[in-house]
């Protein structure tokens, strides 16, 4: 990649990251706004990323690679907690990806990798019957629209909920996770 093309790519991704981080509504982050913030022409973005969805996907993939690298020793509950925290921190970006055009939240490499990891967890815990579906069900609990919805429900402890959900699906021993706010979650009752 030529040096100027690489610089433009980095400038565009950095500008998009900032705009999505500040956006109240990620649908309002336009290609024009990204181009202006990056100091490039709109055509540069289209040549580099194809369209808005391509830009969002590239930024999302970069963030996932940086923050959600696979950890083979990680439990399913820990993985889901990291995904929840990632989506909470990058709410504008993850909402934009799940909403974008034909953009099924299931049609991206990060989802496929997470699904495969959770399918393996379920298979080890319960056997292969229904494992792919149960992995999808676990991932539904960390959809960006749910993360966004629960931002306005301080009485809900999503981290404790994720741990309880994985405990019930996988039949593992319950733990008592620390929520994002640092308080100890309530024990899981049977």
UniProtKB/TrEMBL annotation:
SUPFAM superfamilies: Homeodomain-like (SSF46689). Residues 30-49 bind DNA. Gene3D superfamilies: Tetracycline Repressor, domain 2. GO terms for molecular function: DNA-binding transcription factor activity; transcription cis-regulatory region binding. It holds the Pfam family TetR_N. PROSITE patterns: HTH_TETR_2. InterPro entries: Homeodomain-like_sf, HTH-type_TetR-like_transc_reg, HTH_TetR. Residues 6-67 form the HTH tetR-type domain. Keywords: DNA-binding. Residues 171-190 are annotated as: Disordered. This is AcrR family transcriptional regulator. It comes from Catenuloplanes atrovinosus.
């Amino acid at each position: 990649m030529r040096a100027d093309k690489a610089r433009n790519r980095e400038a565009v991704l950095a500008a998009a990251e900032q705009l999505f981080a500040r956006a109240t509504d990620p649908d309002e982050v336009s290609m024009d706004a990204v181009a202006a913030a990056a100091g490039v022409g709109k055509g540069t973005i289209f040549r580099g990323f194809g369209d808005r969805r391509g830009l969002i996907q590239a930024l999302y993939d970069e963030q996932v690679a940086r923050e959600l690298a696979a950890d083979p020793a990680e439990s399913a509950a820990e993985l889901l907690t990291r995904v929840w925290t990632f989506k909470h921190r990058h709410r504008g970006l993850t909402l934009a990806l799940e909403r974008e055009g034909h953009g099924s939240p299931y049609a991206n490499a990060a989802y496929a990798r997470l699904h495969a990891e959770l399918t393996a967890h379920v298979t080890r815990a319960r056997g292969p019957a229904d494992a792919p579906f149960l992995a999808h069900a676990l991932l539904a609990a960390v959809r960006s629209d749910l993360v966004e919805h629960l931002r306005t429900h301080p009485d809900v402890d999503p981290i404790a909920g994720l741990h309880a959900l994985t405990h019930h699906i996988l039949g593992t021993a319950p733990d008592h996770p620390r929520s994002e706010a640092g308080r100890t979650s309530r024990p899981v009752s049977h």
